[in-house]
Design brief:
heterodimer, A: alpha+beta, 2 domains, five-stranded antiparallel sheet, 8 helices, 5 strands, elongated, B: 373 residues, OB fold (Dihydrolipoamide Acetyltransferase, E2P), Barwin-like endoglucanases, 3 domains, five-stranded mixed beta barrel, 5 helices, 12% helix, globular
């Protein structure tokens, strides 16, 4: 029985290494993705916001590089060749990193109570709370537990593999429970931006317009393919073309509803000189 | 700082980015947009909302009816030719005009002053006691405002402020007597932080006298992300209306700079220019900072909005005349008559702000905005 418990503890300690590596590399990737998406380092400052402006870029880059480096070091020292001092150094470094993170998060919480932790590039703007600090504590304990754990190996039996999966699932559930980002992901997955706030390229509007029955109805009256004006109001984008109808210059205006598929399209023809409406609008 | 004087002039000479009424080669097309919209969507849809499923925007709020074609009814702009305790003489676009002063008339020139203390040659904006009445109740002389990101500081009192791609850069000199008052509300007068001050306009700079708001604690390039909107954006939208100096616009323009112009067809289409001086490193492009503090429907120059001053109970149908993206950076609330429900939703021209009953020195009023009118 005692041997079984000690073996279980050993397995749990072994599993901490890949888990920590994933968390560290994921944190770095989250920050990098946010910087690339927003084209701004400011988007991923997080705790670096505590420092003077000129130091924030280097601190953020150093933090990201440390996460990535530790993640790689943990993976590289997982197997037999990296065991011993390199593995101990990587795991101790990781524990130190999360220890510093706990102190930093506590400090940010005191000094900037509204700020998010920036752990995954400010993926969640939820202010730092006990959950976020608790997650850093958990990861710090994981790193400490991994010090001295033997190299990772394949499960020797189906029962052992099932135990690994259970331990991983339990720990991931615990981390998810401590992560405000998970709730944010849930909200975003189920979120559909209202049409008046949605960015939609003009090219898509023009493509939808040119494939519509309204376009075919008025195409023979257009004198140019290039619109003279395009603008947007809420859920509608308006496109104006010059045309000729019954020998007089006209403006043909299309209103395209901003939705991805089969948008409703309306059209009208106005006298180019008097702005008199020459034909009723219709809907596809 | 002196090296920036030329840069300040150049950047305000021509707003580089915005699909702006004042810089367009054919501003008539913006005016025609409401006609074309009404033709294609029908007049009811065109004036009642921006969504296909929008309910009609019935007025019903006791406002005076809009009178298209009629411009300023409360507001007069001009240069002071003469002023006495009872009469104000202004040189306006319509020529020399005389205005009797109401017994309760109040004047502002860097602070409350007696009307007779105003100076010959001052640029003034006045509000009539009633629509089209000759009697004047409020006078503001040489009022100015700078809103934007501090990009350079020279000494304790001189700042170079970037007002955004549409407006360029301004020099702000904090008046000696106002330093304490401004620093209480703006503790970080450092590059990268926001500033919004009201004061007296001088040739080439603004003499800052009044803080228009409290300084946001965040860096200008890192405003908070607004919460996601469930369903459609509420209509009308309640928030804060502020004002800006005319700049290149006509002084009497009745309109507003809107914080959320369509990024595909407006301000955000032109790539930012590379940094040419150290101050550029602190300049913040408001279009690159996300949706800003308030999620607003995308509109365009020429779109019509009905804006109601909740404090004065006065409303007008106003066109969008420019890009007000800098307003996105401010998550402040107006507290002129209760706390506004949201941040900045409209940046009015000075004339429109006064026309709607706002007091320039207050800097803001609580507003309700209906898209389409």
């Amino acid at each position: 029985m005692t041997r079984s418990v000690s073996q279980s503890v050993l397995i749990v300690r072994e599993l901490q290494v890949p888990l920590l590596a994933v968390m560290l590399i994921g944190g770095c990737a989250g920050k990098a993705w946010r910087v690339i998406r927003d084209r701004s380092f400011a988007a991923a400052f997080g705790p670096a916001g505590l420092f003077p402006w000129r130091l924030r870029h280097p601190i953020m880059i150093a933090m990201c590089a440390t996460e990535f480096g530790l993640g790689l070091a943990l993976i590289a020292t997982t197997g037999g060749p990296g065991a011993g001092l390199p593995a101990t150094a990587a795991r101790a470094g990781t524990a130190m990193f999360f220890l510093v993170a706990i102190g930093t998060l506590y400090e940010v919480r005191q000094r900037r109570p509204g700020a998010g932790c920036g752990c995954f590039g400010d993926f969640s703007d939820t202010p730092i709370g006990l959950r976020t600090i608790g997650r850093a504590c958990l990861l710090c304990v994981s790193a400490l537990a991994a010090i001295g754990a033997p190299p990772l190996r394949m499960a020797s039996s189906f029962r052992e593999a099932a135990f690994w999966v259970c331990v991983l699932a339990l720990e991931l559930t615990l981390i998810a429970g401590l992560s405000p980002e998970v709730a944010e992901i849930g909200v975003r997955l189920g979120y559909s931006e209202p049409c008046e706030l949605r960015r939609l390229p003009v090219t898509r509007t023009l493509t939808a317009l040119r494939g519509s029955s309204q376009w075919r109805r008025y195409a023979d009256r257009l004198i140019a393919d290039t619109p003279t004006d395009i603008w947007r109001e809420g859920c509608w984008r308006f496109v104006v073309f010059e045309g000729v109808s019954h020998g007089r210059p006209v403006d043909i205006v299309f209103a395209v509803y901003l939705q991805a598929r089969r948008p409703p399209i309306r059209a009208a023809i106005l006298d180019g000189a008097t702005d008199e409406v020459l034909s009723p609008s219709g809907i596809r | 700082m002196q090296s920036h004087l030329r840069q300040v002039r150049n950047s305000t000479d021509f707003p580089r980015w915005c699909d702006d009424v004042m810089t367009s080669t054919s501003p008539v097309r913006f005016v025609r947009r409401s006609v074309l919209k009404a033709a294609v969507l029908g007049s009811r849809s065109a004036t009642s909302g921006w969504r296909a499923d929008s309910a009609d925007g019935a007025d019903g709020d006791g406002l005076e009816p809009d009178q298209p074609g009629i411009g300023l009814r409360y507001t007069v702009l001009g240069k002071i030719l003469d002023v006495s305790p009872h009469i104000l003489v202004l040189e306006t676009d319509a020529g020399e005009q005389r205005f009797p002063l109401a017994p309760t008339a109040v004047a502002w020139r860097g602070g409350p002053v007696a009307p007779a203390a105003l100076r010959h040659g001052d640029h003034a904006i006045v509000r009539r006691l009633a629509p089209d009445s000759p009697v004047v109740e409020r006078i503001w002389a040489e009022a100015g405002r700078v809103t934007g990101t501090i990009i350079e500081r020279d000494g304790p009192a001189t700042l170079l402020v970037d007002e955004g791609p549409a407006k360029g850069r301004r020099i702000v000199i904090i008046a000696a007597g106002a330093s304490g008052r401004i620093q209480v509300r703006f503790p970080r007068l450092e590059p990268g932080y926001l500033i919004d001050v009201i004061g007296l306009r001088h040739d080439g700079f603004l003499q800052a006298l009044i803080p228009a708001t409290a300084q946001p604690p965040y860096h200008a390039g890192h405003p908070p992300t607004p919460p996601l909107v469930g369903g459609h954006v509420p209509d009308p939208i309640s928030g804060t209306a502020v004002w800006h100096e005319p700049g290149e616009e006509p002084a009497g323009l009745l309109g507003l700079a809107y914080p959320a112009l369509d990024p595909e067809t407006s301000c955000e289409r032109v790539a930012p220019t590379p940094a040419t001086c150290s101050g550029d490193l602190h300049a913040v492009d408001p279009h690159a900072t996300g949706p800003g503090c308030v999620r607003l429907p995308y509109l365009s120059v020429g779109s019509m909005l009905r804006l109601r001053n909740d404090c004065a109970g006065r409303g007008r149908l106003l066109p969008v005349t420019g890009c007000g993206a800098t307003a996105r950076l401010f998550c402040d609330r107006c507290v002129s008559c209760g706390t506004s429900r949201k941040g900045r939703i409209a940046d009015l021209t000075m004339a429109a702000f006064v026309e709607l009953g706002g007091d320039l020195e207050a800097g803001c009023f609580n507003a309700a905005m209906t898209i389409g009118g």
